[in-house]
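Continuing the series of single-chain predictions for the mutant panel. This is the parent chain; the variants come on the following pages.
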Amino acid sequence: MKRLLFLLITFVLIVGCSTVPITGRKTLNLIPESQMNSMSFTQYDEFLKTNKLSNNRTQINIVKRVGHRIQKAVEQYFADNGMSNKLSGYEWEFNLLESNEVNAWCMPGGKVVVYTGILPVTKDETGLAVVMGHEIAHAIAGHGSERMSQGMLAQLGGMALETALEEKPDKTKQVWMTVFGVGTQFGVMLPFSRMHESEADHLGLIFMAMAGYDPAKAVEFWERMSAMKGGQAPPEFMSTHPADATRISNLKKLLPEALNYYKKPAGSNIKRKKINSG
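Parent structure:
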């Protein structure tokens, strides 16, 4: 335990900390974004080859439209804060997977998958923006890199990723599998910690507001998700999320900040386009 603590302190001092946008939280990141993205893109392509994408053109277009709007909001935020270089390796992609599972995720580098099973819960574009903003926030905050760094520190003694790939490829792959859950039938991302989930709620609320979606609707979405439980196991999308009451309370506290970023689009009195569940 003492050795692990010593290694942790040493690497934090040598490598330094990353800072999460908006929240300002300091994180441990031992992995270059270029390498993290490369591994992500490879796995994402493999996932798409082995899973069935939706052919519902209406739903696909809505997913892509919401995704691109949030992408532009993220890029604008980074540009406004002189951090555009941090997104230089991103290759944004938004896909809709044919699955009854209530789920969605975003891998490092902007690779997003939404499951058709979550669309009846999102109901419309704004509800979908809550989900996609939250998932994209995980990638923007570097939660995958942080978790991968922690795994490598614990299992490989903080060995650099490039060295680990050369000298201990099987062990490195095992760390990746543990972090991202690659190989499961559905989904690539294993549940994040509750701290990560709360942080993604915060960033996601800001990004959806910047994209022109009413952040107040996030509360309604999570209330619908809560109602789905019905005394049974929660949907995969909520497996490690904060308690419902806690999440909704936190979102309400964050609304004043998010509303500062919210710009109602022209013709905002027009009803948001519904997402048919069929």
